[in-house]
Each structure stands twice: as C-alpha cells, then as structure tokens.
Design goal:
The protein has 304 residues and is an alpha/beta fold. The protein has 14 helices and 5 strands. It has a 5-stranded parallel β-sheet, sandwiched between helices.
Length: 304
Amino acid sequence: MKKIILHCGMPKTGSSALQVQLAQSRDRLLTHGYDYLPKGDIAQAREGRITSGNGAMLARAWLNPGHPAGLVDQREEITTEFRTAIAATEGHVILSSEFFSATPRPLLAELCQALADLGEVTLVFFTREQLNAIASTYIQQVKRHMLAQYPDEYLADWSRYKIPMMYHSYMSQLAKRLPKARILAKPYELSKTHPAGLMGLFLELIGADIPAADLPEDSRINLSPSPQEIRLMIEINKHHPRMQFSDMLVEGSFAAGRSNIHSRHSILPPAIIREVSAFFRAENEAYFRDFAQCDNIYENAWDE
C-alpha cells in the first residue's frame, strides 16, 4: 500500500536542512520507491536555499482562516492538485512543511482524512528540547527579523511557547482524531549521533532502507551565530540591514568554526532555565514514554 508521509516539523528541528537534502536526493530516492514530490519551491531547495518545503502550499491551505500565511480560499483547488500528484506517482510520497505543525489539530485531521483513500497517511514529527528551542527561536528573530532585544527582555514572558511545545499533549490529542493514521516522533537531538545525520534519522523513522552512500551530508542551512555575533546583530539590527548580512555573518561563523548544525545555545537567564525545565518535565516524561519510545534525553539536559 502506498504511504503518504507528511513531515510536519516541528519548528527549530532542522526542517530547512532536511528539505534541501530531500530535494537534492529526489532522483536517488525515486530509485528506492520514495517520491519527494516536485512541488512548491523545490528548485530553491535543490540550490541549498531555505524554503518552506514541497508541502507548504497544501499545509497553508489547511491553516486557520485568520492565519497570515493561510490559503483557505484555495483549499479545494490546492488539495485536488496534490491529490492528483499523489495518485500519479507509483512510489511512496513524501511531503514536508513546518506549516503542517502550525495547522490546528482538527484541520490537520481533516486533511489526513482527505488523503486517506490514496494511501496510508503517516505524520512525522521531530521535537527539540524546549530550552534550546526557545533560545533558537530568539536567535532566529535576531537573525532574520531584525529583533533588537536581549534574551532577558524578549523572554520575560515565554508563555506563548508553552502550548506548542507540550509535545505529549499535542500528539495524544492528534492521535485521538486520527486513529487510522500513524504518528512517528523522535527528538531532533538524536540526529547528532546518527551515522547519516538528520536525513538518516528521518528515513529510519519512516522505514525507508536507503544506503547512507546514496544520501548527501547534513546541510548547513539556517545555522545560528555565536553569542558574540548575536550581540553584533542586535546593534546592527537597529539600522535595518539587508537580509543578506545575517547570512554572510553565519557563513563566516561556520567557516571559522564558531557555528555548526548541532549548536547548543547558552544564552538564557538561569531563572528562565529553571522555570522552563520544571514546567515541561512531566510532559517530556510522557512524550518519551508514549511517542518517542526512547530514553528521555531532555531530563537534566541543562547545567547552569
């Protein structure tokens, strides 16, 4: 039976890098029976650029009506277009976009049901330890959205991140709405020690037996600058620089050995570390037990 695999993110789990690898590996994946559909901005991903994934248009069509990126008025048209593409390919289908995880659970369930007659729907999630995810989100705002606040200012109220990072609650509620779909989840951090990196972890999770020799190496996409470079960016952001500046800075940071795809961020105030760790402790225990089904690597992940 054909598999329809929706890689949903979550945010800050290397989605842009994975989408580049999937796009660049498309021809090789096809020989193994997996089709990363040539939709959306796949051409940019082949060039190694940050994209929203080949499933972005479909996911955006199922966002809430009020979402700024939503394409609700084109939902029927876009869904029909993707259904036609899925039906036309002989292989298992891979669609990727972080917008899938931004889709409200009732609508995501409706989307999966709209595809269920074409194959077995599988939802794939990677998660990131919450403190690192919060720090990475802050860095992204500095790097890509001209934020000029320091971490203690920006994170004085971090409550807006609580619900999206309650991984067990999110997935268990989604599972109730989708009893026939598969939900697969792993911590993104496992890609650091996987011999084939994030791409290898993803393929292993979906059960795709593809030799590592057929895969490109982990893409160095959307890396984070160092703490010193973040301070530099904060000052420069006050002058509204061109977007290319942050890209140049990060490229130089990687070349100098200050940044890598598995950077851990140590920029959060100690009080925030204690508060966030305590809040998510029980959620993480349940998530690792019921979904990730591996050791809880988020417990005691931080040392002040």
